[in-house]
Each structure stands twice: as C-alpha cells, then as structure tokens.
Amino acid sequence: MRVTGTAAAARIVEQAKRDRRGVLVFTIGTGCCESTAPFLYEDFWPGPDSEQVGEVAGVPVFAPEYLRALYPGNDGVTVDVTDDMAESMSIETEYGCRFVLRDPNGLPIDHQSEQVCDVPESVSALRARGPQELPEALRRVRMR
Amino acid sequence: MGDAQLFIDGAWGDAQSGETFPTYAPSTGEKIADVAKAGREDAARAVQAARKAFDEGPWPKMSGKERAEKLRAVADIINGRSAEIAEIEARDGGGTIKKAMFADVPGAVSTFQAFADCAENEPDIIERGESPFPPAKSIVRREPFGVCSGIVPWNFPFLMAGWKIGPAIAAGNTVVLKPASFTSLSAIEMVKAVEEADLPPGVVNLITGPGGSAGEEMAQHPLVDKVAFTGSTEVGRRIMQLASGTVKKVTLELGGKSANIVLDDADLDLAAAGVLWGTFFHNGQVCESGTRALVSRKIYDEFVGMLVERAGKIVIGDNMDMATDLGPLVSPSQVDTTERYVKLGLDEGAKLLCGGAKPTNLAAGLDQSAFYLPTIFEADNSMKIAQEEIFGPVLCVIPFDSDDEAIKIANDSIYGLGGGVWSKNVERAHSVAASMRTGTVWINDYHMITPTQPFGGYKQSGIGRELGDYGYNEYRQIKHVWQNTATDRNGYLHFAALSGNI
To answer: What is the ipTM of this complex?
Structure first.
C-alpha cells in the first residue's frame, strides 16, 4: 500500500501545519460513520501494528496492518480533500472540508462505468402524503 | 446569529467566534438551518459550566428518586412533542419518518424512563459484609464521576443523545454533549426538553460544530472526568489518547462488520426478511448492521434467491412519507463512499447480485445523488467489502459448510459488535451465539436494542457498555468505605505491624 496526496490535500495540510504546534500525523482508520478514511491528527500515536505508507506535504501517513494487507502493493491510493463535513475530529474539519481516499491515479470514481444488476428496482415515491400514522405493528412495540 | 445555538450554563447563545455552519435535508439538498459552530473556547466554557454545576450545584446531591422525577419529566416533554421532533430528526438526518416515529423518538423517551428507574432502584450504598480481624464493616458507595463529555454520530442523533445524557444525569453527573454536525437539530430539541423540565443550569450543556478542536477539548479538558463516544474506531483511538492526559474514564461504542448467520434449519422466510432488515434498515448506516450474511451452503441458492427478489421490493423515496422504507443516505459523500466500495468489490471479483447503483426512477424534487439501491454481493470474507465497514446499503453474502466454519468466518473481523443466528433449533443457535466474539447476538431476530439491556462491543468495537444497569454503572464511581468497628487497641493490626509504641 503506497499513499500519496493531491495538491489540494497538501494545501490543507500546510494550513494545518501553520495552525498547530504539535507533530502532525495522518492515520487511515476505519469503521462506522467515516468508513475507511484518512484522519489528520496532532500528536497522535498511530498504533502498534501501524506502519508508514506514504506522506502528504511532509506529513507521514500511517495505516494498520490489516488495511495494508487489504491493499497490497502500490495501489496508487491518494489522499484528496472534498468540500464536506465529517465527524472524525480530524483537523481539517475545522476548515469545512474533509480528507478522503481516492482510487488509483487520483481519479474520481467513474460512476458511469458501474455495473447495475438486473433486478426489479425499488419503487420511488414523492407523492401526496397520506396520514403519517405508524402501522399498528410498530405502535405496539414495548421492549424491555 | 444562527437558527440553532449552543446551550451553556442554562443559556442559549452563539459561538464566541460568531461562526455558523449550514445543515441540509439530505433528501432534497435544501438548507434547513444555520447552526452555531463552536470552537475550543466554547467547549471549554461548557466544560467549566458543567464542572461548576457538579461541584457547587444541587444535582449530584439530590436523591436518585428526585433525579428520576426530572428524567421522567424530560421523557414526558419529549413524548408530548414526539411528532414534531420526529419530523426534525427525519428531515435533518435523512432517515425515514417511520424510523423516527417508531425508533428514534420513542427510543429516547424509554431511555430516559429506563435510566430514571435505575436512579430510583439501583442502590447507591451496598453492604459488603464484615471482616473478622481487624473487625470491620465494608460498604461500597456508587457515586457520579463528575463532568461527562458525550460525542455522538449522525445515524441516530436523537437516540444517541439520550444514551449519553440519560445515564449520565441519572447517576448525578453533569454533561457536555456534542451531536454530529450533519445532525445537530434534534439534540437541540432534547436539550430544550431538559430546560423545560427545569434541571439546574450547567447540568446539561450543548456544543455544536465539526469537532476538530471543540471535540478535542471535550475529550482532553482536565476538568472532564469521563468521555463517552459513539463513532468510528480510529476516532475512538483518538479520543482515548486525548483522554489519557488526565486518565479519564472512557467508554466507546465503535464500528462493526457483524455477521448474520443463517443455519440450514432456519425458517427461511423469516430469516430472509431478517437478513434484509439487519442490513438495509436505515441504509446500513447502523454500527451493528448485519452486513455479512453467512449462509449455509445447503440452503444457499434458495436463500440468496429470496434475498435478491425481496431486496427489489424495498421502497425507496421521500423519507418523510410513511410508506417509504429507505430514504437518502446522510449525504452525497456517504453515497460516494458506498460507490467506492461497490467498485472495490467488483475489482476484487465479488459477484454483484443486485443493486450496485443509484436509483434512476426517483420522483422529481429528490436529490438523486443522495440515494443508493440496496446492494447484495456474493463475496469472500477476505475481501475489502467484507472486512471494512461501509456504512451504506451493501450486504455481503458468504457461504459456509459447517457451524464451526460459520463461527470462524463470523469471528474473522477486527470488530465484535453484533451478530445474528437463525435456526429453528434453539440449543444449536445458543451454541453458535456463545462462540461469537461480539457484544450482542440476536437469535431469530436483529437490531433489537432495548434501554434495559447492555449494548457494546468486543475487540475494536469498543470499551464498556451502554444501556441497562451495566450502562448506568459506567457513569458511577466505586468507593469502598472501610469502617473499623473495634473499641480498643486489640482490634487493630498496626500496633503489631509497625510498633506497639505508637
């Protein structure tokens, strides 16, 4: 697993370097609301099985062993930045953006090339709403 | 001024910086409010208010019964406004109005009621028996920790706020709560209910914002005694490190990649519905979602056929319509994440059985970029889509040949949050459940979390438990009080141990 950063990501990292006094570290973490994503932290211990897998603007990027095993070799994963919120306590969230992982060569995923399976598509609904009453089965829920 | 403000020391106000950030309705992309963007200084002020309320205020000194009455009042106020709060919750977070009305709001109400019961019934003083020599009686006192920080995610904003505020204040602590910035609005409604129930100022404080520095402050401030966090594993590690500076008590409820095991003797009709419910409820944006369906090879083809056929019947659309099963994901970026994993799955050779794209026939007015079809892959457990938590509507179906193999696959994960077993043989199901390294196992059911039973994770899914008496006691210190009952020097050991001359 080899990780590099886009120019946009590097600019945000440079801003964080100016704003923070401590040592900055990227860690690629996983789980729950963020899925697998890069987080930029100040004075952070990456963990016993983490190893450096790259750098962005001079800030090392660490990933745990199990993620390195999932992305063997040089997959060309990049750290990029998007104009979005996140709940990761990562430093860039202060600037109204978030770091994300991109596919090889930094290209965005080509949505058009994706396979869609041939199954009945679910029904969509934006119609006049009926009564907003819960179904009876949900009204009698009493869990202890 | 923002539409949604901070609540510190019993008063609503803007962030010190005056900054705000917008919050959007995911289904339409429409902005619905400007929310105060708290910084480090606001978080510190909230912590100080909570500290003062704990050290000098009446709350920790009140009896459990008195606090229970206040919690029940909060529950009643929320219950009285349930329709209004459910609408706010669904609009801001993108979950369905159905989910908000049957799970989020009633779940929060019953959480406050359950912790009121704990405050009233769980003993504060426990007699621990007598010691023969030196003669003594021991008691254990259960006491509040002090100031508790609670940081919650965007998938169940109202319920999670209740899980953090409820047990903390029931036990006599004071709280600083930070909801996720995608979903701040319903937590504000919960704090309004606390205000209306007339809790003393500073007992519950609310900070809103992205958390890069406000969240750091809540996790590391020296005046904070306990930090409770629900969210991703890596952020949980960050919280632990920040909290380690002053050795705070930490409880974490983190990620998962839970296995839903369908044995060959399962009721396939119920199990198929249960597996779909286990994964696709709230678009898989649930930490204990059963996103790996382990299916016995003996019934595999029939069962997978049922899953695919029924997944196409799930109704996607306007989340504010009671007839809708799945609304948008929380944000277009969450859809991007889901798409990235679908592509990774295809690249790794997983077989796409259904879904794998955004819906194309949504009604006008809905933001197409925020929706994704329920997606089912046939996968190998070693693939990224079977190991990493996607937090989107993606199910991996994995075949197995024996119960032992199913257990092995289920446990082959860094996580250990939830899991399911489907079988008509209860004894067999319990045997499998006993071997699963997870904090919760449902037999012939899924997603059943109740405020009176413990919830939490093994392995990298967390530390400690929420809910029930176990969750309540995470918010109470343990103090041993030793009382020597002797009346003369013969009842003491220190004369012999040190010197008879003292």
So the answer is: 0.79
